[in-house]
Specification:
Layout lengths: L15 E3 L2 E3 L6 E6 L4 E7 L3 H20 L2 H17 L1 H12 L3 H20 L9 E2 L5 E9 L2 E5 L5 H14 L3 E5 L6 H11 L7 E4 L3 H10 L3 E7 L2 H14 L3 E4 L5 E4 L6 H10 L14 E5 L3 H13 L19 H16 L4 E4 L18 E4 L6 H4 L6 E7 L2 H9 L3 E2 L1 E5 L3 H10 L4 E4 L14 E2 L2 E2 L5 H8 E9 L7
Parallel strand pairs: 7-8, 7-10, 8-9, 10-11, 12-13, 12-18, 13-16, 15-16, 18-19
Antiparallel strand pairs: 1-2, 3-4, 5-6, 6-22, 11-21, 14-15, 17-20
Helix pairs in contact: 1-7, 2-4, 3-4, 3-6, 4-5, 9-10
The structure holds 1,4-dihydronicotinamide adenine dinucleotide and magnesium ion.
């Protein structure tokens, strides 16, 4: 039986968007979408495959010439209209996100819906910035550059902030004059389809196409399609490598926003409540820590180790786990069985490790209301080592490791001893230490004394295996979704006749 809410009933048998039409998969096959808070089915979605990819890419290629000739500021104006229309439906969108992702409405899903409208608004204002340069070769030559779109963009997105991450590809790609085929994540496609519905009210057919289906079966053919001129992927580092191989085969540009194991370095002068709040925010506990920027390795100065962990224990234990749709809930559910099992596996390993001390948390409840869903309990392990699996691998769940340090250089060395380099957090009153450390850390984004999420305008992306390219910003749009052409004109040709 499908579980219905008034907002959501119409998505019960969701359809994909191809060439301006809402369609079933060519094979007719469907996939279930579950509510992670109670494991009940909320909808089914088309199980798209190679044939559907073919139709969507054809539609995008057909729409490209006309769309690329719409003046950039007009394309921007369309994004502004989409922003307004999304804003008018924020609450509906937020509830769908909460229902399918398990992210709590108040702390996560509603802010995600609001931020999505902001993303369309931000990029909508940037149409006029798609400008080129003139190159001063002298009076006899006019040399200038143009920012041209790439063509059909293939985008693949994950489930953790599905609508926001989708908007971060749709808005800049379309403002820059590309057309798009996006594959939504199989676990969280409904919010993305609703966003697509809103977009489609303002867009010509084929400019935006949204497919649903599984990774290899639907994402694979999209990544390999010869007509796709650019690949933009957000998700695991493992799949990022597959996408990059597919791009290499055809020499198409690729942007990758991948995983992280981001360090938080806490100095001895920072044993304070606001820092504890910041660590909780940076760890994204209220998103079940299913965030690529989660500050999941905490390097705590040895002098404040126990006292800081005591404060952290009190504050985290005050957070309420429960029904994502309940306004009182701080922390919702993990996305699916596979991720839940994986997270529990890490907790189990921590419990068994002799050198590690469980500070709080542990395995999820086996009975009661919470056992009906994939509810993982916020958990902290203290250990001297930065070398064990829990300190090295992206857990993508609420499991934080605390590691003591004494020497600043040693803290920085441990922080950088990772194949990831997405985000980092530094906590101290001493501006010299803070900036020295911020500059020494190998990460695309370092925050000092705050643990916030990304904002439009900030060039966001990873070092090392956390990714290639930047998003969220003007430069992100220009570098990821346009190519430069230079035109050089000789002004000294003899006059005809
Ligand atoms: P994933 O990377 O497998 O999935 C992301 C997207 O890629 C989905 O739309 C999926 O259908 C698609 N995909 C999967 N395999 C593909 C393939 N062979 N070709 C083309 N597309 C493909 O992530 P998954 O399995 O959901 O989560 C596994 C781990 O990945 C998590 O535990 C976490 O560590 C990491 N992750 C990181 C994210 C981030 O934002 N950096 C987001 C989601 C997951
Ligand atoms: Mg996967």
């Amino acid at each position: 039986m499908l579980e219905k809410t008034p907002d959501q009933a119409k998505l019960e048998h969701a359809r994909m968007l191809i060439d301006g039409k809402w369609t079933q998969s060519a094979s007719g096959a469907v996939l279930p979408v579950l509510n992670p808070a109670n494991r009940r089915q909320i909808a089914d979605i088309p199980r798209g495959g190679a044939e559907d990819v073919e139709l969507a890419v054809k539609a995008a290629a057909k729409a490209f010439p006309a769309w690329s000739r719409v003046p950039p500021r007009e394309r921007g104006r369309i994004m502004l209209r989409i922003a307004d229309a999304l804003e008018a439906r924020v609450e509906e969108l937020a509830r769908i996100i909460a229902l399918e992702t398990g992210n709590a409405l108040r702390t996560q899903a509603r802010p995600e819906a609001k931020n999505t409208a902001d993303i369309f608004r931000y990029f909508g204002g940037l149409g006029g910035e798609l400008k080129g340069e003139t190159i001063p070769f002298g009076e006899h030559v006019l040399s200038y550059t143009r920012r041209e779109p790439l063509g059909v963009v293939g985008a693949i997105i994950p489930w953790n902030a599905p609508v926001l991450l989708g908007a971060l590809k749709i808005a800049p790609a379309l403002v820059a004059g590309n057309t798009l085929v996006m594959k939504a994540a199989e676990d969280a496609p409904l919010g993305v389809l609703m966003m697509a519905q809103v977009c489609q009210e303002f867009l010509p057919p084929g400019v935006l196409n949204v497919l649903t289906g599984l990774g290899e079966e639907c994402g694979g053919p999209l990544a390999q399609h010869p007509t796709v001129r650019k690949l933009s992927f957000t998700g695991s580092t493992e799949v990022g490598k597959i996408i990059m191989h597919a791009a290499a085969d055809r020499i198409v540009p690729v942007s990758l926003e991948l995983g992280g194991k981001s360090p938080s370095i806490v100095y001895p002068d920072a044993d304070e409540d606001w820092v504890v709040d910041g660590i909780i925010a940076a760890m994204r506990f209220t998103r079940q820590s299913q965030s690529c920027t989660a500050g999941s390795r905490m390097f705590l100065h040895a002098d404040i180790f126990d006292s800081f962990l005591d404060k952290l224990t009190t504050k985290v234990q005050a957070l309420k786990l429960g029904d994502p749709l309940d306004e009182a809930t701080d922390i919702g559910a993990i996305i699916n069985e596979k991720q839940f099992t994986k997270v529990c596996g890490y907790v189990q390993e921590g419990l068994q490790r002799k050198d590690a001390r469980l500070v709080f948390g542990g395995l999820p409840p086996k009975e009661g209301k919470l056992s009906e869903g994939y509810f993982a309990v916020p958990t902290v392990f203290a250990d001297k080592s930065n070398d064990w699996r829990l300190a090295r691998e992206e857990i993508f769940g609420p499991v934080l490791v605390a590691i003591p340090w004494r020497d600043e250089a040693e803290a920085i060395r441990m922080a950088n001893d990772s194949h990831y380099g997405l985000a980092a957090y530094v906590w101290t009153h001493d501006i010299g230490s803070a900036l020295r450390t911020a500059h020494a850390i190998e990460s695309g984004w370092v925050q000092v004394n705050q643990g916030l999420g990304q904002s439009p305008g900030h060039s966001y992306g990873g070092y090392k295996q956390s990714g290639i390219g930047r998003e969220f910003s003007l430069e992100g749009m220009l570098d990821s979704f346009t190519q430069r052409k230079n035109v050089t004109v000789n002004l000294t040709t003899p006059r005809a006749g």
